[in-house]
Write a structure and sequence with these properties.
Two copies of one chain form a homodimer. In chain A, α1 links the parallel β1 and β2. Chain A is built from ten helices and 15 strands. In chain A, the strands form five sheets. A seven-stranded parallel β-sheet of chain A has the order 3-2-1-4-5-7-12, with helices on both faces. In chain A, strands 6-15 form a two-stranded parallel ribbon. The first copy, chain A, folds into two domains: about 200 residues, Rossmann fold, CATH 3.40.50; about 90 residues, UDP-galactose 4-epimerase, domain 1. The two termini of chain A are about 25 Å apart. In chain A, about 40% of the residues lie in helices and about 20% in strands. Chain A is of the alpha/beta class. At the A-B interface, α4 and α5 of A face α4 and α5 of B.
Chain lengths: ~325, ~325
């Protein structure tokens, strides 16, 4: 039996879907702040699916929810995806990431120790690295100097998991990935651009000068890679960068792609500066050689992922 | 005006003493759980010294204390030393280090932002690195895989400081050091051995087989190095290993040194295994080349530091 926290979010929905297709019993937890209950409708009637609305940052509530959805010893592994995903919100108010990004991990580890669950698979982030300039970032690279509270609390989560491996944990997989795109989208640059163009079809205002360049991975490929690592990696601690095989695409590319799909006649207006908000890393390069050696590589480039996600998000109806 | 958190602990007392000698005004904060008020008596009558008993993990209490001891704009820099220092206690119960090691840092940063204090100097730890085996640990080494909750929450603190440098902080000095010895001692292996021999003068029971080897720095030299870095380093973020110029001394050496001072006739009995408790790193090697390049190097070896501290602690009267 698998437990998926953040199970009603973008990655959670797609992961739960894949796990159910494998015949697994899956318990999804979500506080339904960004994740949406309507997204879960697709699992209605599928055998093995259970859901509980709970905020993992509330340890007492988490304990109660787990006691209700599973008998002791049933849950064998935890996919811990629950986190704040609004990085600018966490820059303005550090307690957002302390609570939603770190305490969720801290509490899940406490609950796992109590329930004797020994395997965690954790969605970390490229943001733990900070700015490496032109250096290519490998999993063992240092120093780690996150520049957002989100990145800081993802690194804190990794550190807490690392320490737990010395006590009760037997295995931890840590997935470090950049921006994820796809459906059901709840937030993010493509989602925002689609929404802006729906509100005012004649123009699209973009934060920054559009030159900001980042890799984007499609959620389908991300989930495929996570499952591949879970199946194939063999260490106690398996840390993997997961990213497309390129340096990314610019905000300008994303704006034009979304504009062409949603409102081809709209004018795009850019701001100034190479980053949208404090704590945003303007450019980075990721090594995925470790994942390549394990035997997995993405088929979609960042441009492919963005184009596909833009079409999917534009076609997404509320609650889909 | 300097603020020193953990100001009644081993490092705090010695740092406050040095800062006062420089003519600085110093506010010491301490929850007096391990730090002791009696240690502060030495500052009675010295101009520029202020003290407030407060738990920095309680943000409301911290804000009240700071409002009482200083007018807005007076405090120019913070020496943040407050933390759990009982690593085994944090292994048994993760909330100890979350609260006392991480939340203290998290709250101090919130208070600093509110009071527009832009300089922090932070006592981090060699425990953030985890086990590097025979590799020599430099400040930029990776991966960082702490094996204790204490190390995890020190790394989390560094990460939060790193993110704060992107918003309101202008300068952060991060000191990473191993075990510190000296007086006033509140805990630690020498302190424990002295206490055990005082209780039962005929024998000394040692956890582990005595082969565990670690570097020890004397508090006088540590404080000297911290002040040197504060005075001489010039980057926004200055991360320095501070350690003696050797691989350390064994627990056996410490046991024999303390025995010879306190109860020369006592028998030393060893346990088994190369570490005293889960989360303890059995051996590590530290590079201090960066600090050497800055122009500071320790005069005492680990053996010197332990021998001197053993004599000091044996001569220490309660409340001294």
């Amino acid at each position: 039996m698998h437990l998926v926290t953040g199970g009603a979010g973008l990655i959670g929905i797609n992961l739960v879907d894949r796990l159910l297709s494998r015949g697994e019993i899956v318990i999804a937890l979500d506080n339904l702040v960004r994740g949406r209950e309507t997204y879960l409708r697709r699992f209605a009637g599928r055998p093995g699916f259970r859901f509980a609305q709970v905020d993992c940052a509330d340890l007492a509530a988490l304990r109660r929810a787990l006691a209700e959805v599973a008998a002791p010893g049933q849950i064998r592994e935890v996919w811990h995806l629950a986190a704040n995903s609004d990085i600018p919100a966490g820059v303005a108010e550090p307690s957002v990431d302390h609570r939603n990004t770190f305490l969720t991990t801290f509490n899940i580890l406490i609950a796992m120790r109590e329930l004797e669950i020994h395997v965690i698979r954790f969605s970390s982030s490229s943001s733990i690295y900070g700015e490496f300039g032109d250096r290519i970032i490998e999993e063992d690279s240092g120093p780690l100097r996150p520049i957002s509270n989100y990145g800081a609390m993802k690194l804190a989560s990794e550190a807490q998991i690392s320490a737990a491996l010395e006590s009760f944990l037997r295995r931890a997989d840590i997935f470090r990935f950049p921006n994820v795109v796809g459906i059901p989208a709840t937030h993010g640059v493509i989602y925002d651009f689609v929404a802006k163009l729906r509100r005012a079809g004649d123009r699209l205002d973009v934060l920054g000068d559009g030159s900001q360049c980042k890799p984007y991975i499609h959620v389908d490929e991300l989930v495929e890679a996570m499952l591949f690592i879970a199946d194939r990696a063999n260490d106690r601690l398996n840390v993997f960068n997961i990213a497309p095989p390129d340096d990314g695409v610019t905000v300008r590319y994303i704006a034009e792609t979304v504009r062409d799909i949603v409102a081809p006649a709209a004018e795009i207006r850019y701001g100034s500066g190479d980053r949208g908000w404090v704590g945003d890393v303007p450019k980075f390069r990721y090594s995925t050689a470790r994942l390549d050696r394990l035997g997995w590589r993405p088929k979609l480039t960042s441009a492919d992922a963005v184009s596909r996600a833009a079409r999917e998000i534009a076609a997404q109806r509320h609650g889909e």
